[in-house]
Amino acid sequence: xxxxxxxxxxxxxxxxxxxxxxxxxxxxxxxxxxxxxxxxxxxxxxxxxxxxxxxxxxxxxxxxxxxxxxxxxxxxxxxxxxxxxxxxxxxxxxxxxxxxxxxxxxxxxxxxxxxxxxxxxxxxxxxxxxxxxxxxxxxxxxxxxxxxxxxxxxxxxxxxxxxxxxxxxxxxxxxxxxxxxxxxxxxxxxxxxxxxxxxxxxxxxxxxxxxxxxxxxxxxxxxxxxxxxxxxxxxxxxxxxxxxxxxxxxxxxxxxxxxxxxxxxxxxxxxxxxxxxxxxxxxxxxxxxxxxxxxxxxxxxxxxxxxxxxxxxxxxxxxxxxxxxxxxxxxxxxxxxxxxxxxxxxxxxxxxxxxxxxxxxxxxxxxxxxxxxxxxxxxxxxxxxxxxxxxxxxxxxxxxxxxxxxxxxxxxxxxxxxxxxxxxxxxxxxxxxxxxxxxxxxxxxxxxxxxxxxxxxxxxxxxxxxxxxxxxxxxxxxxxxxxxxxxxxxxxxxxxxxxxxxxxxxxxxxxxxxxxxxxxxxxxxxxxxxxxxxxxxxxxxxxxxxxxxxxxxxxxxxxxxxxxxxxxxxxxxxxxxxxxxxxxxxxxxxxxxxxxxxxxxxxxxxxxxxxxxxxxxxxxxxxxxxxxxxxxxxxxxxxxxxxxxxxxxxxxxxxxxxxxxxxxxxxxxxxxxxxxxxxxxxxxxxxxxxxxxxxxxxxxxxxxxxxxxxxxxxxxxxxxxxxxxxxxxxxxxxxxxxxxxxxxxxxxxxxxxxxxxxxxxxxxxxxxxxxxxxxxxxxxxxxxxxxxxxxxxxxxxxxxxxxxxxx
Length: 807
Description:
It is a single chain. Helices cover 40% and strands 8% of the residues. By secondary structure, the protein is α/β, with parallel strands linked by helices. β1 and β2 form a beta hairpin. The protein is elongated.
């Protein structure tokens, strides 16, 4: 048998082998003829909203799930299925006669307490050092809790799990019948919430927030968590009961030794057991190993009387010498792995070398004949388990606590590289065989991963390529991801571009199934680039299809902005105050006769005018959008250019009546002089001609009424009765605080009309420069401070020397 591949050597066939095979098949009958040849395992799974087709040849294909397929809640397992599932979760039965189990000593108090707490629905954390008998106590509690929960007792292994996700999937698979579905996280949490079971979780390695997530996701489950003292403690909000498991007493240790050796101990052995208990703190595992040492010592010392009379045979394996084997020393009893390994069979020592090369993982006993090269090597697991060198972990066996370190010091790890390469090639053949189910591969996940980590790059690429589809089909996706990452790294080192593209494609599909879109895009783009370099059109198309699904997912996850709502202005309700808007109405001004004054009038049901510049918020209606593009300010009428008046300092609003009357009288005198001058020179001015600039607003001389004074506006107050109005012939008194204009003469104007015709240039001396029939120009202005009257200096002649001197 080939030690590497675990199968017989190929035998050469003659040239007529196909014809002979066909003849043999026809002679065997239709049953043999209809047997198909082994083909690649193509498995279709439902992963959330996707349908995943695992193809070991061309890579996995993913597409959206068709309507009406999947998505239904699976049914729970019945009692018979749960029993079968519980049996499958235990370590496999070993060949040969069953070894007697160690007695269950000094644990009755802890056993009753745990059963009582679990029966009340409380979760318990059982803490004890490695080798304290936690797994044996869990087996006893599982037997007592049968029938307490509606979904029974479920056994899980937390070895190697740092997050709660994979444990939740394992719990879901143990309760529900869903062999072709791996639900997404939302569906998973919704289904495990309805599970009501007692969960025994051995070898717990997580704590803190990860453990809180597990407990919150399954509120109807009662947990018994077995952990070592160095495991991370749970949070304060977990509300777990704590039970500590210590060592055994002196009497219990002696009883355990007598049960392991099958005879009573001598006084010397009893004293040695007492010293060993003190050194090992009474751990049961140390006394199981000590019992194996005593059995080997008895065999060496020829304890049977009939053996002394027999002559040593030719084919006897052990040497016949009269050397007496003394009791092991205290150090050998505390670290007995090297001494025990030296006294077991050669197949058992070869299995120990393989276990050391695989990081402490012992392969299934069915693989040992191929790995060791001995057809009877499957019995080595039972031999090592009886010596206490192995311990059960979930559905497999591992080296006991401290054994791996002791064997490495003894030289069992010297050939680790060769052993790991042999194991990797064997598992590459086994996992790729069509007769091996994906579930069977998942049970050997830890040994496969250990072989992958210790093998060379060529063997690692081959193993990862064959094991990855099996892990994907078995829904053990944590192991699937680890295999893919290890395979991608090994392919990069080996220069296998095609295999590297395959691993990146599978990583992208896995990330897409789990909702990690950024990771999926990165992996798929890397795979498409590598396949494009290889001119792999079929693989490129598959990668682009998966990448299109990533793009669709990203677009679906982006929130779309709401559409623009076009709503009409809301009318003011009856009885409510109307809104105020600004309208332009003509009014009489003291100093700016042609400037309209803004007046605020109440108008109901009018939309507010939003300023165009300086908007603090974005427009929400269509009217606001048009207001920004087209301002609502009315277009001003065409008017003659106006000479801006010099900016003067603001004056107080309230002034003496005399100064106001003097200013108004000055305007009247100036207008009279200009009118007389134009009448004397050109008495017949056409209607359409351009005349002198006059005011378009009625002056104080034309507007009279009660309370009004000639020469002032109608809104001005009447003068004091004791004060006479100033004469029109007298010059206006200069306004206090203003200096006279240097361009003007101090002479007063004459009433006699001048014979010189005034200038008809556009920049006239009138206040506004408009026509004889002015039309008020409406102007929308903001409510500001009322205008201040501007004093006009007394002109010296009909035609001023400086036109800018007129206000």
